[in-house]
């Protein structure tokens, strides 16, 4: 069992982060925030997929002005993403948002940052303190020569101390880079020195499959070390894929269970059914079914019920047919043509 790092609590709306709360899954909309209808439609889809906190971009005034309507109608807490403009930040803080993402390296004005923090404290708005390799302070680049893990950690520690020096504590820290090893090192250094909750991820991880693999390695190692209170998988893909990947990572480490977990064989010459197609169809039909079940789809008699004893329900496939089983006990034989529908029907009948 993974022993998680002890951190203090931070609240984003009604969602608790840190202090041994479940690791929270986040994502970010890819719509223009000023397009309120499209943004809310995407937020609702992400919520349905399991997203628990959503970040929306607010680079211009029109986006900030759309925030009140979005916050009012969002089913989950909303974080406004602010980078260069303190003026936009203050507009966002008037919208009722639950959190704000600040990258001090992009604002670089301590006076303005202090004003923003004072306003956040007054309105009970959480802050995500963002440090990443693309906006590291010049002094640290000169000191280290490149955005090393040590440089990123030093920046995060510096700004965390500044936040606390002005009496602001309701914040989490995000230290991200696209280099997996430097990212791990930065978060590890920071985690050893503070009890501040960490939002983890690999930024600019890339597209689909490759991005998911890179994110899984970086995020998975940190989680195994007990580091991470909230997570976002950053992919060049539909945000729903980010949420699904995040839950898969957490589930593989026993840190969260959400929905159906499918256990299925690799393909090989022993298989006598179209296993990839069967698994794909079952996965699609159960995509939004929020039951914490293990479903096994075994491809041959070698990898049959015996290797799937821990599954709640499954198929042990053979020659154009399969045995449908529950908790290791055979229920009935089904043909290849009917096995998907029969399996899904039995799963939906499980209380």
Automatic annotation (TrEMBL):
InterPro entries xref list: Dihydropteroate_synth-like_sf, Enolase-like_C_sf, IspG_bac, IspG_bac-typ, IspG_C, IspG_TIM, NO2/SO3_Rdtase_4Fe4S_sf
Keywords per UniProt: 4Fe-4S, Iron, Iron-sulfur, Isoprene biosynthesis, Metal-binding, Oxidoreductase
Pathway: Isoprenoid biosynthesis; isopentenyl diphosphate biosynthesis via DXP pathway; isopentenyl diphosphate from 1-deoxy-D-xylulose 5-phosphate: step 5/6
GO biological process: isopentenyl diphosphate biosynthetic process, methylerythritol 4-phosphate pathway; terpenoid biosynthetic process
Broad class of enzyme this protein falls into: oxidoreductase
Cofactors required: [4Fe-4S] cluster
Record's keyword annotation contains Oxidoreductase: yes
Listed HAMAP family: IspG (MF_00159)
Functional description taken from the UniProt entry: Converts 2C-methyl-D-erythritol 2,4-cyclodiphosphate (ME-2,4cPP) into 1-hydroxy-2-methyl-2-(E)-butenyl 4-diphosphate.
The name this protein goes by in its record: 4-hydroxy-3-methylbut-2-en-1-yl diphosphate synthase (flavodoxin)
Gene: ispG
């Amino acid at each position: 069992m993974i022993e998680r790092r002890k951190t203090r609590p931070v609240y984003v709306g009604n969602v608790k982060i840190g202090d041994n709360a479940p690791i929270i899954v986040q994502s970010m909309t890819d719509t223009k925030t000023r397009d309120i209808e499209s943004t809310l439609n995407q937020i609702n889809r992400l919520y349905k997929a399991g997203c628990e906190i959503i970040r929306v971009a607010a680079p211009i005034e029109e986006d900030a002005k759309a925030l009140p309507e979005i916050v009012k109608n969002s089913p989950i807490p909303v974080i406004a993403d602010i980078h260069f403009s303190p003026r936009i930040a203050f507009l966002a803080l008037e919208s009722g948002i639950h959190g704000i993402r600040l990258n001090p390296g992009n604002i670089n004005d301590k006076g303005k940052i202090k004003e923003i923090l004072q306003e956040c404290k007054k309105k009970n708005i959480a802050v995500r303190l963002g440090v990443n390799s693309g906006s590291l302070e010049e002094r640290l680049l000169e000191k280290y020569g490149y955005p090393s893990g040590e440089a990123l950690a030093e920046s995060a520690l510096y700004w965390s101390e500044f936040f606390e020096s002005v009496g602001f504590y309701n914040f989490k820290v995000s230290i991200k880079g696209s280099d997996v090893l430097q990212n791990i090192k930065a978060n590890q250094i920071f985690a050893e020195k503070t009890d501040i909750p960490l939002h983890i991820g690999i930024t600019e991880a890339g597209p689909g499959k490759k991005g998911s693999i890179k994110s899984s390695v970086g995020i998975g190692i940190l989680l195994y070390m007990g580091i991470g209170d909230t997570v976002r998988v950053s992919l060049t893909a539909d945000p729903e894929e980010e949420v699904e990947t995040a839950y898969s990572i957490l589930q593989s480490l026993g840190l969260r269970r959400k929905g159906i977990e499918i256990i299925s064989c690799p393909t090989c010459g022993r298989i006598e059914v179209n296993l990839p197609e069967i698994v794909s169809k079952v996965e699609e039909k159960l995509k939004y079914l929020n039951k914490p079940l293990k479903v096994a789809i075994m491809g041959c008699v070698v990898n049959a019920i015996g290797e799937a004893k821990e599954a709640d329900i499954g198929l042990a496939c053979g020659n154009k047919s399969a045995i449908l089983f529950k908790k290791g006990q055979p229920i009935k034989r089904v043909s290849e043509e009917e096995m998907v529908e029969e399996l899904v029907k039995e799963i939906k009948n499980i209380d």
